[in-house]
User: Fold these one by one.
Assistant:
Number 1:
Amino acid sequence: MDLNPSDEQVQLVEAFEALYAKESPSERVRSAEATGFDADLWSTLIETGAVSMAADEAAGGWGATLLDLALVAEQHGRALGSAPIIDAQVAVRLLGRLDSGAAKDLLVGHLAGERLVSVALHPPIGGVLRMVPAGAVADSVIFFDVGELFAMDLGAERAQLRTTGAMPVADLPVAGATSLASGAVASEVFERARDEWMALTANALVGLANRALEIGVEYVKERHAFGTPIGSFQAVAHGLANARTSADGAMLLSREAAWAADEDPERFSELARLAFGFATEAAREASYASEHYHGGYGFMAEYDIQLYWRRAHAWPALMAEPDVIFASAERARLDRLKKGA
Amino acid sequence: MDFRLGESSEAFRAEAKAFLDEHFTEDVERMMHETGIHHSWDLHRALADQGLLAPSWPEEFGGQGKGHLEMIAFHEEFQRAGAPTYGQGTTAIVLGIILALGSDELKKMIIPPALRGEFIVSLGFTEPESGSDVAAAQTRAVRDGDEWVINGQKMFTTSAQDAKYVFMLTRTNPDAPKHRGLTTFLVPIDGGGVEVQPVQTISGERTNITFYSDVRIPDVMRIGEVDKGWDVMGLGLTLERSGAHDGHTIRLQRAMEAWATTPNEIDGTLPADDERTLAKLGRMAAEAEVTTLLARRSAWVADQGGRPGVEGSMAKLFSSEALLRQSRDFVNLMGPDGIRSFGDPTAPAKGEAEYALRFALGTTTYGGTSEIQRDIVARNGLGLPRAR
Ligand SMILES: Cc1cc2nc3c(=O)[nH]c(=O)nc-3n(C[C@H](O)[C@H](O)[C@H](O)COP(=O)(O)OP(=O)(O)OC[C@H]3O[C@@H](n4cnc5c(N)ncnc54)[C@H](O)[C@@H]3O)c2cc1C
């Protein structure tokens, strides 16, 4: 067992930590709230290699592991980055698994930073892909419908949705889609992309929870009531201790899930879903505790903690509520156990 | 990063499994539940015969030099099997203390026979008027020449009915500040003046109240310096609190997954076909994995030469509260059948959830209550001011 990241991973984390400190301080997060997209942050991320790192070396990428991407996602979550880094990376990995010419072309444009590709997490309903991550800023979207995987180029006309958590999501009517794959390959690749999205988002939620707790802990040490720092009241301290414990658990589980992609592949689906469900609740617990122990100030738009609370609710909601995720994790788990893996 | 415990841990786990297959028989299990005594002499002596009572100790002291990551694999298997562990657990804590802080004479007298499995040792910290506030102990020890005379009462002296000694926290100086007037002793139970009175509990586990009237012991039974008992307790409590309940959660999980994937006897339906049941199983899988990871992290920190104080408290807090949540969820999910007791032949899944619910309650209390663990996480982990 070794819970320390490698030297290369430490360097990677430090590089992204510095990038986010510079390009995603809370003023920048706030100024991008209307769209959930900060174009300058996004171009810096692309220049740094945040998208191409996800591709194999053969495809011109860095060949980063899912765990490498997870450690970057954690920094992204800490900083509440207003950029679709996870969606873009998941698209890279999905396209890398397909052989068709259309998929290869999409990948080339995506890696060159010319055409941003995103992945719809759910099949269309009534001809519309609903609440597609990065749907408001992507140039193409990949989606799954009745056994087939499609790509669709997006026009300029897209309504920016207003949501709890300031994200560039959009509802996208299906029109003029090209098939990328069908049959078992299509569904496997799509399921895999969803699992990877969950594993990475879990790690982003861990980063979010960690920073939310730091903000809360700092506040309760400073703020006084009844002549003493409020952090000395057990009701406050124990709420934070529970949240810290959940966040530690979420961190271990989310890293393990990303690690399993390469090192324990039979358990990857199950762990990705468990991590996502658990990290969702841990991030909500952490941001709620920190928000609540700010008292009335936590409710004010001016205090940063509200930014965390809103995203802890919004980001994971794009996939499904925790109970639905836990049920799907258990399905994967029982399947594995039945196979005796 | 590597989330595997490692080959030597898995090899030691296999040894534990083989041991349990042979020695943790249905008879041993039945006796444990019938008597509520989570100690089996047969198992204990078999452990001693294989040098498994203190495997983490250096070979020169009768151990096998096993590391923390190997030990956790071993403990996981014992808990997953539901094997009795209290006797060897408390004894190991006290032997660890004696090895670190005991006099040479005491070491010679206690350690070799204890490792041969000849006796076990109980813990005597809690009193009628003090538990969480361990240092408020009032049991008196008064010096009389080369002897000490002990008077008082201890609560929850688990395994005392089978033990040869109680490792006891006493007050030797009532005038000194609370933490500075304490001394620890190893008190023989059968040397006269000790009365052991059984106490029954919600889970059926048996514990005891022990009474001490003019118990005379020689000074050689003292551990650590006079009035410096709190330093000794520091080590004792760390050893005790590092006990997470990861294996119990896995045991419950296995029982519930088996229940959910076996057709119901009455109408042939599969519980696992129900989304609500699946969601609860998934939630339990997440908490079981987190429980395991938190406990293994503590072991890993210790393996790296660190002191897993906050990590140990998180593991203890999370594992016991998760066991309570999960068992309650499944008892609820089973509807009226959920309350058919463990041991009743009509109980679903042999009543494992019903038993776990009652058992879990104790785990949130002994070894430092959840509130005490949260205090430690808040103060030492988050740097918050002392609670009030
Ligand atoms: C099955 C079982 C076996 C046990 N075995 C042993 C044993 O072998 N040897 C032994 O010495 N003891 C043993 N104990 C005792 C156990 O360690 C104590 O019960 C425990 O430490 C709590 O002490 P108490 O019961 O006096 O409760 P109290 O300390 O009176 O606590 C009562 C309640 O108040 C809360 N509380 C107390 N202080 C604080 C605080 N500062 N902040 C917030 N809340 C607080 C507690 O969390 C608890 O909920 C055992 C207990 C059980 C249930």
Note: Chain B has three domains: 7-84, 121-227, 242-381.
Number 2:
Amino acid sequence: MKKDVFDVAIIGAGAVGASILRRLSAYDLKLALLEKCTDVCFGVSKANSGIIHAGFHHPVTSLKARLEIRGNLMFDQLQHELGFPFKRVGIIVAAFSYEEMKTVEQLYEQGVANGVPLIEVCGRERLLMLEPKLNPDTVGGLYAPTGGIIEPYRYVFALVESAKQNGAEVKTDFEVVSAKHNDNVYTITSSRKEKIQARHVINSAGLFADEVSAIFGGEVFTITPRKGEEYLLERNAAGFPNHVIFPVPSRVSKGILVIPTVEGTMMVGPTAIEVNDKDDSETSSDNLDKVFAQAMYMIPVISKREIITSFAGSRATMPGNDFYIGISKSAPHFIQVAGIQSPGLTASPAIGEYVKDLLKQDGLRLTEKTDYEPFIPHETCVRELSPAALDEKVKEDPLYGHMVCRCESVSEAEIVEAIRKGHTTLDGIKFYTRAGMGRCQGGFCSYRVMKIIARETGRPIEEITKRGGGSRLLLGKIPVESGARPSPKPKKKSVKYA
Amino acid sequence: MRELEYEAIVIGAGAAGMAAALRIAEGGFRVALVDREDHLGGILMQCIHNGFGLHWFKQELTGPEFAERLAEKVVAAGIDIFLNTTVMDFSVSNGVKTLIACNSEQGVIQFNARAVVLAMGCRERNRGNIGIPGTRPAGIFTAGLAQRLINVDGYVPGKRVVIIGSGDIGLIMARRLSWVGAKVLAVVEILPHPSGITRNIVQCLHDFNIPLYLSHIVSRIEGKDRVEAVTITPLEGGTPEHSKSFRIECDTVLLSVGLIPENELSKKAGVTIGHDTGGPKVDAHLMTSAEGVFACGNVLHVHDLVDFVADESTRCGGYVVDYLRDQIGEEKQGAVTAGANVRYVVPHRYVPGRDTHFSLRSIIVKDRGTLLIKRQGAVIKKKTVQHVKPAEMIYFKMRGSDLPATEGDPAPLEIALE
Ligand SMILES: Cc1cc2nc3c(=O)[nH]c(=O)nc-3n(C[C@H](O)[C@H](O)[C@H](O)COP(=O)(O)OP(=O)(O)OC[C@H]3O[C@@H](n4cnc5c(N)ncnc54)[C@H](O)[C@@H]3O)c2cc1C
Ligand SMILES: Cc1cc2nc3c(=O)[nH]c(=O)nc-3n(C[C@H](O)[C@H](O)[C@H](O)COP(=O)(O)OP(=O)(O)OC[C@H]3O[C@@H](n4cnc5c(N)ncnc54)[C@H](O)[C@@H]3O)c2cc1C
């Protein structure tokens, strides 16, 4: 019995839970990551701006600023080991009045005090040289070259894969609904009545951390969702900037940003509106106009016509607006990692480190593995290959020669690889491979991907979902003699290759 | 990596690509026809309804039947066909056109050719393009994808369906869904008039008692996992009147909100794209801004009848033959512009004294319209057109004798509707 007990169970497979898991996987520990969704990174960690902040926005007195700065510095090493898309493109804060310039100077001083490297204040000329598409009415601004951009889902998938490779277990479709503590061991039950046991539990359930805390008899607190809507614009969009462009922040938010993505698309957003429903991910047309008005003030050539999709995620905020990370005083061996709003993505590697130290403080023995493997195998992306390299790949595996997603050039081999890694929903495959993420938003490839999932998993195609749960894509099969009209199958041409 | 030389390469083996390739082969040139699908015929293979071929084959056919007829000729003509082969890159340098394509059997193929025909068809506009607010659950399909799921794969995408857009594809899908037992609850059209042809309104909506809401929009999609409902809002004076909104419970939303030429590859080759059509700009020989690169079919501008696609593409193939024979001379071309009430005219240039086919789309709806062909401030030709509407492309031929040379450079031609 005791052999099956996990040393640590981590609840929530977002950037935070995954970072903690991966950090702990370097030690001789039996680890479980519990996630209520069908796949990892289906929470807020997939719906954000993907910015690795430089660390000048918050005073260093807050925990979130300390972890943000430390987290930022850890990304080069992580990318080296895990190979996810990440680029230090730099951050620009553009000022449009001398009043705003004063705030820029304050941000500069705060950045210097926080130890942000290479940060500088720019005059108008220099700023326009760095970012020629900027509205020429700018009067100057701040430049922080260590700020960066990341594909957040690729980052989380890589963390989880690395941890799995080092022995950690991941249980998806596992919604924690109850827990009991006996003999120093928690018995945790899922909504499907599965049970697991663990000695230490980490609450990194994002927006639901308050509910999970209650399940374990931890501190009472409330998470308030603050929704942010973002708009994604196509590749080669006219407004694609060189850097992440921020306006001068107000007291409540960092404002509407213009963000290049590592993959060459761009985003504008996010809004910041408190909502009641944690699952609220609606976008509205009023916000669209506001977001674009603000973004176009900074970069006038941005065009609504280039929108390919929109999405929304909510920041998990707590009173005081800081992260709340600590050993619970009311539940034994229970660590709270709550209120991880922005810059949670940036801070996540540092949170992993911080939680590891808390576990040690809480009595967990940490013995380093001798065979810890920090590297994961590099994934082949057809869109990054030269024609000659692709030709070689097709010889290895013919499926590399079959393009499934036309917009993002994703081959069947990449889809099959994603399925083998456990991503078996349309969204899971989209986030893992980018199939369906381009201009046509899956109009061309989604049924092809569904067929491949059905083939690889042996499940009927009607059971394939968009993202698990009740998100079924097809609602039935046409009986052979159903409709009033026959439906002749198009004849396939038996044409030989030239 | 394999390298293959051809005199001409046609990208896309739909009606357009097949017709163009056939004409080039008939002219005696070596031509390759490349398509990423596993069949010839392109979009036609999922259009199993009737209504194809009345002009071209003088017979009413289904989409696959139309495709079949062309395909037989293509095979008989000995054209080299590459199926399951995606063209990934296209560049032009020093007159040589290079395509990088890929398939599972042969790996990467580099095609070099003197002439290239763009015949990649079009893609459907999607939710992001029209920005419908709300959640993002399963159950939102473009009409063409739904058509493919039903007609080719035999699956029912939904049971209670609301269709956005009253274009022909949406209308045909309303009927198709009804036939397979789904309930189509509404067709919602932002414009005050239907975008599809009248025959389809009657046969696909009225015959099934499907309500058509004109001047209405879908202002919200609800549902967490699967679509649960939509909110429909009337437009009054062009703006949504939210107090008059109503909600329809449904599990599926179909988008039939227009097609856009597939111009990714065209852009890679540096071809100039027209803002009016969304496809390449072409001269009197259907040649794009890149010398030796031609375009026809839906990649050039969205057609509603395959017969016109076949006609245009056959002519395009003829121009390619002329080009390969060095018979496209230095004749001066004049500009063609869209005048009053006309959204676009293709081609964008003409040669005086030569017969020219024009395709155009109206902006207005009118029972009886008049086409005015103007030059140097004077109307040089008038033509009556029945049932003018944006949904129906106007296709007509001008005789060379009606387009005499002008003094000096050919004067610009303007085509207007009234
Ligand atoms: C619009 C927006 C933009 C942002 N931009 C940035 C940015 O540019 N840079 C940056 O650094 N940060 C940004 N952030 C913040 C960042 O996204 C978050 O801080 C980070 O993703 C939080 O990660 P998480 O793991 O805590 O949460 P999540 O990713 O939400 O993970 C929590 C997981 O817990 C699971 N869960 C919940 N309850 C249970 C249960 N009972 N049982 C099992 N599993 C459960 C959930 O399903 C979820 O997967 C942004 C946030 C938003 C909303
Ligand atoms: C749903 C629907 C219903 C219609 N109904 C009617 C009707 O009732 N009557 C009528 O007369 N007309 C109808 N039409 C119109 C007519 O059928 C089409 O306009 C015509 O078939 C388009 O032909 P095409 O060759 O231009 O495009 P397509 O048939 O779309 O062919 C383009 C081909 O190019 C290929 N391709 C694209 N990019 C690449 C690449 N990079 N590499 C390799 N291959 C590529 C595609 O795979 C495709 O096969 C309908 C059209 C649609 C979409």
Note: The longest strand of chain B covers residues 107-118.
Number 3:
Amino acid sequence: MSQTSKTVLILGASSAVAEATARLYAAEGARLLLVGRKAEQLEVIAADLKVRGAAVADIALCDLGNVTPASVAENVAVWTERLGGVIDDILIAYGVLGEQSRAETDLADAAAVMQVNFTSAALWCLAVAGQLEQQRAGTLVVLGSVAGDRGRQSNYLYGATKAGLDKLVQGIAHRLSKVGARAVIVKPGPIDTPMTAGMKKGGPMWSTPQAVAAIVRRAADRGGVTVYAPKRWKFIMLIIRFLPDAIFHRSSL
Amino acid sequence: MLPPSFHETQALRSWGRVTQPRQFVQKPAWLNQAAAAVTALDHDGSVLPVGLGRSYGDTALNPDGGVVVTSALDRLIDFDAATGVIHAEAGISLGSLLAFLIPRGFFLPVTPGSQFVTLGGAIANDVHGKNHHEAGTFGCWVEEITLARSDGTIQQLQPGRNDGFFAATIGGLGLTGMILSARFKAIPIRSSLVETETIPFANLAEFFAIAQESETSWPYTVSWIDCFGSRGAGRGLFSRARHVLSGELRAEADATRVSIPFEAPGILLSKPVLQAFNALYYTAGKRHRGTRKTSYKPFFYPLDAIGQWNLLYGRQGLYQYQSVVPPAAGPEATAEMLRQIAAAGQGSFLAVLKTFGPRPSPGMLSFPQEGTTLALDFPNRGESTLALLARLDDIVRAAGGRLYPAKDGRMSGDLFRAGYPRLAEFEPHVDPKFSSAFWRRVKTAG
Ligand SMILES: Cc1cc2nc3c(=O)[nH]c(=O)nc-3n(C[C@H](O)[C@H](O)[C@H](O)COP(=O)(O)OP(=O)(O)OC[C@H]3O[C@@H](n4cnc5c(N)ncnc54)[C@H](O)[C@@H]3O)c2cc1C
Ligand SMILES: NC(=O)c1ccc[n+]([C@@H]2O[C@H](COP(=O)([O-])OP(=O)(O)OC[C@H]3O[C@@H](n4cnc5c(N)ncnc54)[C@H](OP(=O)(O)O)[C@@H]3O)[C@@H](O)[C@H]2O)c1
């Protein structure tokens, strides 16, 4: 593959959405570094990506949700080096859904969800933003969720962590715009992945990892800071955000 | 009882949609999870691997039992660009395989009429395509299968190994274990276009003549037949195709153009509507007779353009009925079946007729055998439909033929045994924890 092939860093590479996105990069001949905490899974994915055309599909093991500020900075430096000194695109995809009712009674559980989805992810975002700023190029793509657009009884803790990421990424996008780099928050609706195992699926609300991946891949190249996946969620959430509390509170969403 | 990783649902149905059983479903994302899923059962639990649910009847259903959906197991493991041998996880769809293979100058060696079919499903039903007379079944091209059994063992199966598990698993209806991955040989192509020719025929005799003439020079042949034509005449359209020898190699994206949003009302399937549809189809086909070049997709996967077309058959669903009868019996048995259908006034949208070639199928329970195969779909009208199918059964049985389990949801155990003489050889290979609605039915029902 040519030296012009993209370098891509994926945090949470074993996520279904991340894997589907990685396949799109692989088909372009990209050089990928896959980060996650399960070597066996990452190896299977890396082999698939190589067959599909990735120039490089390397693995780095890291318990992404469980990190210290110092280790975050150091890892980003090491991984940048492994990708040849420049990261073109970085995708942050790991996360947990948690269980709202459990988090309400067990605060340790709530803390764990916040640690994985927001606290650790925010550190990765900040460290990577520094790298992109220095490069004066590159795109950070973070997976948020429509759940971050309005708190609702059934999953507001998860929603809050995604809302936090949303605002963080907005700010980073503003900051990076000064140097020609980008940051994007992609907000999917429900997707048929292991994260939603056991839920009643099917119907117009649900999408597939492949459909979301296509949007993620496009968002990395061009477009605005906030991207809904699929796009119809932009309009659905517009309505939901503006529903008066008096009406919203009568629903059982 | 099944472990909590299996979730209760009634949403998983077969393509014919005649029943809506309660099942306990798990959709593993990794091969080791899939292997673990089939070992995690206690004494009275049973399990069945399923792919994309494109089988019409009950071979891919396990009511009140466990179902392991494979469609997230869709990774490529290895590809040899020199030989076209590809190794992939069992849940990958044929469409995804084509998207990978075509730009690299390869094609599926055998493909059924839908690309929304998994590799595992293609093997477990030993599917056939329009090139059966040349290429045999999909199983003829499989070089290795990795099979997970409920006792926790993982077997590597290859053709010619004498333990029989390979021959049992090809066409094994998901009963011999869970196929984790498979290696098969793709065929080289130089273009993604196909040259097709459509030839109208006025009766069955013409069909058999064109079929015989075509099979030496055309790798792909198939016919549509009008089952409403004037009593038993069997007019239709013969189409044949070959890969074009030079040109672009372009895989087309998702085939679905429009989707049927909900179950259609019964009127759509009334006899006058079906009759008019068939007449129109014939006339349109006649007008388009002759040769043309098209993308591979409209030729191989015409129905994939309409998402969930099975909903057109309404709330009661549909029965498919696909038989094969030996060559000598072909003309007479086919004519007799068409006569029965016309007499019952129950014809189908799309009746498909094809001759299978002599290449032996590798599976003990593979459906294809040399002869004439006729595939029909019937809106489920309850007793009257079942009565007609029973009359067709008699014709098939008398002709020494058999029915295709992938399409079946009602054949008697007796007819199944009559059609599949290697059943006794197959049975010892069935995994004791694996079962399906089909299997329980043909084992117990008369
Ligand atoms: C429009 C259309 C056209 C068709 N045309 C043809 C045709 O031309 N020729 C033809 O032969 N068939 C044809 N079929 C039937 C279809 O090819 C078969 O039913 C095929 O097996 C479906 O694959 P699937 O992935 O949907 O499997 P399912 O229907 O989900 O399962 C089929 C069988 O495979 C087993 N199975 C699935 N995955 C595994 C696994 N990993 N390990 C072990 N067992 C497994 C299941 O237990 C079941 O017995 C057609 C179907 C449709 C809807
Ligand atoms: N699925 C949906 O409906 C949906 C909707 C909107 C947004 N999203 C978001 O989209 C992203 C991808 O989700 P998905 O649906 O693809 O989920 P998924 O397939 O379940 O993947 C989640 C990933 O997160 C990883 N992970 C969880 N905790 C981790 C930790 N502490 N350290 C490292 N990795 C950890 C998991 O790795 P392990 O295998 O190692 O646990 C797994 O790879 C998530 O951010 C999710 O919040 C999903």
Note: Chain B is about 25% helix and 25% strand.
